[in-house]
Design goal:
331 residues, alpha/beta, Aminopeptidase, 8-stranded mixed β-sheet, 12 helices, 18% strand
């Protein structure tokens, strides 16, 4: 057991009744079995929009899990006294898988215990040339970004994919997967990671979501863009889930939060001496700053999901043209 898993289990023991949890599976690590939890706030209903929050996909990137645990802690506390806030979950369902890769986090690895990078493991191939090694490979299990053998879907991904499929009947679904380790600025990436030439079918809706965020919080510092602007990769989990969701004619908008960890290293180069120093702030005051800085984003996504029937009706050709000009004019 380790701090993040202990903290999560303690919160679930003390959570209010509106917060329900289940185990998607257990990861065997030597003599231990480490559970993967899914948490739900609000009852399921076919007409309810869904917000999904995930983290801990890469075991080294502990800060993503910690951000979600901080948000869950805030939600549990607020549900104890704020009946108006609790009523919000009559209109929206919040689902959370804050620690998908407990084996990797316990070992201090990016990959899972079988050396598979969960974000390079889905059955999706890059359309154009993927980045060398970084874009996913099958050279060796002992190199970073290993995809797994052909047809080898990691158990953690099997559990998550099966869980997400349960919500493909919902009219709208928004997802945020929390990561760290890219650049000096926090980024919100959306699919595709497999191609820089083909936009997702719901590009206009993604652009409208960006507009809402920037208009509501003009002082925010996120860069909102397709992942393909930086590199292409095989086996992206959210590419795969997005494409699968289209069979259900659902509007599914998956985002990845890439926290700019290079900024933490710039301020404290000595943290590179620690195994997780490239992906996690070390100084306690910086950890607290990161934990509180993304709570506004998570709260915005919750309310944007609940209000989806209102703002989706404002999406049209103007947003499509603006999105193509902004993100794909040079494709």
């Amino acid at each position: 057991m380790f701090a993040e898993l202990n903290q999560l289990e303690l919160m679930l023991q003390q959570a209010p009744k509106l917060v329900q949890s289940q185990q998607l599976g257990k990861v065997q690590l030597k003599t231990q079995q480490l559970p993967v939890y899914a948490i739900e706030i609000g009852k399921r209903a076919k007409d309810k929009p869904v917000l999904l929050l995930t983290g801990g996909v890469h075991g080294l990137e502990r800060i993503g899990t910690q951000v979600l645990l901080a948000y869950l802690e805030s939600l549990c506390a607020r549900l104890q006294w704020d009946q108006h806030f609790a009523a919000l979950f009559d209109k929206v369902q919040l689902c959370m898988v804050p620690l998908l890769n407990p084996g990797g986090m316990a070992l201090g690895w990016r990959s899972n215990p079988q050396h598979i990078d969960l974000m390079r493991n889905a059955p999706t191939e890059a359309v154009e040339k993927a980045a060398f090694l970084l874009g996913g490979h099958r050279v060796s299990r002992f190199l970073p970004w290993y995809r797994g053998e052909p047809g080898e879907l990691a158990q953690e991904n099997q559990w998550l994919i099966a869980y997400v499929r349960k919500f493909f009947q919902a009219p709208f679904m928004l997802a945020l997967d929390c990561h760290s380790g890219f650049g000096r600025t926090d980024r919100l990436w959306f699919p595709y990671a497999k191609t820089a030439k083909q936009p997702i079918a719901h590009l206009a809706q993604m652009y409208r979501l960006q507009q809402l965020l920037f208009q509501s919080f003009p002082q925010q510092n996120y860069i909102f863009e397709p992942q393909s602007r930086h590199y292409l990769c095989h086996g992206d989990l959210w590419d795969h889930l997005y494409d699968e969701s289209q069979q259900y004619h659902q509007i599914f908008l998956p985002l990845t939060l890439e926290m700019g960890s290079w900024n933490w290293v710039r301020k404290n180069p000595f943290q590179l001496l620690k195994s997780h120093g490239l992906f996690h702030p070390v100084k306690p005051h910086r950890v607290k700053r990161v934990l509180r800085s993304h709570l506004i984003l998570l709260d915005f996504l919750l309310h944007a999901t609940a209000a989806a029937p209102d703002w989706l009706g404002t999406v049209g050709s103007a947003q499509q043209q603006a999105a193509e000009a902004l993100w794909y004019s040079k494709a």
